[in-house]
Amino acid sequence: xxxxxxxxxxxxxxxxxxxxxxxxxxxxxxxxxxxxxxxxxxxxxxxxxxxxxxxxxxxxxxxxxxxxxxxxxxxxxxxxxxxxxxxxxxxxxxxxxxxxxxxxxxxxxxxxxxxxxxxxxxxxxxxxxxxxxxxxxxxxxxxxxxxxxx
Amino acid sequence: xxxxxxxxxxxxxxxxxxxxxxxxxxxxxxxxxxxxxxxxxxxxxxxxxxxxxxxxxxxxxxxxxxxxxxxxxxxxxxxxxxxxxxxxxxxxxxxxxxxxxxxxxxxxxxxxxxxxxxxxxxxxxxxxxxxxxxxxxxxxxxxxxxxxxxxxxxxxxxxxxxxxxxxxxxxxxxxxxxxxxxxxx
Lengths: 150, 185
Description:
The complex is a heterodimer.
Chain A: H1 9-31, H2 40-58, H3 60-66, H4 69-93, H5 116-144
Chain B: H1 3-23, H2 27-47, H3 51-72, H4 87-103, H5 105-110, H6 120-133, H7 138-146, H8 148-175
Helix pairs in contact in B: 1-2, 2-3, 6-7, 7-8
């Protein structure tokens, strides 16, 4: 049974090394969303693909032990509320719904552009957790229908 | 070479890929050749200097390919039944497409030069976005500052879609948790 979980040893080893680099690249894309091409959506998909990579290589049983899917789903749901909270905060402090109320800083520096990096991070959480939870649910559904464990 | 020539080349590549996907009998091979279309769209965005869109399109192409391959892998409907070719149907389709092409020649002549008329809103964004928002990436400045309300709607759509997918897919689990009649359904 241990042998049938996930793919071969080569794939598992490559995944173990590369998944952290993919996650790091996703975080880079998110944090530099206001400086270079990319942003919350692209970085979120990269992180979801990294988690999907682990799920495909190690099998679904491993990912169930590694991360708490219920927690990911809660994170995904609460990030939508966080986006709305940022909008209402802008209404309270900045004088308009979703107003850019934090100081804009120096152009081309990492800590600049006010609320834009924060909104990028919120969107990336939303996209990455949402896409991964949907794929995880699809694989569970496949098992419920009577399919074999792959 | 101008960018239009490259775009026509990529477009032709995409059309060939989709025709191959239609003609292939094996569904798994068809899914892979449909990937040419998404890759072509990504390259077209790259040529049009829309880097943000190119990155997102490329990543979602990988994502869709993984889901489609997992969905079609090892299923009974892997091999499609050979269907009878309807000669009249394809002739009518090609004739109608040719007719539309002939009728729309005037429109192609009247098209403005590529990327030329910059609207006043776009001009304002290009000239003032960096100072007004402090964001060096103008695309991000638009989607998260000028049009942040639109992004909120997008987030809501994503939230609702994922909630709907979870609701539909989870129903069976709560019913069949005790090993119910999944096979007979």
